[in-house]
Amino acid sequence: MGGTHQAAFREAVVDTLRNFYKKDFDAADVRQSIVAAVAIRVIEPVFESQTKTKLGSQYMSEGGTSMKNFVYDFLAKELDNYLHKNPSTAESLKKRIEQSERERKELAGIKKLANERAKKANLHNRKLRDCRFHLNDEATGKDKDAILEKQKESTVFITEGDSASGSITKARDVERQAVFSLRGKPLNCFGLTKKVVYENEEFNLLQHALNVEDGIEGLRYNNIVIATDADVDGMHIRLLLMTFFLQFFPDLVKNGHVYVLETPLFRVRNKQETIYCYDEMEKQAAVKKLGNKPEITRFKGLGEISPEEFARFIGSDMRKEPVMVMPETHIQQILEYYMGKNTQERQEFIINNLRVEQDLVDDVKDVKEVKEEK
Question: Does domain 127-263+300-341 have CATH number 3.40.50.670?
Answer without folding.
Answer: yes
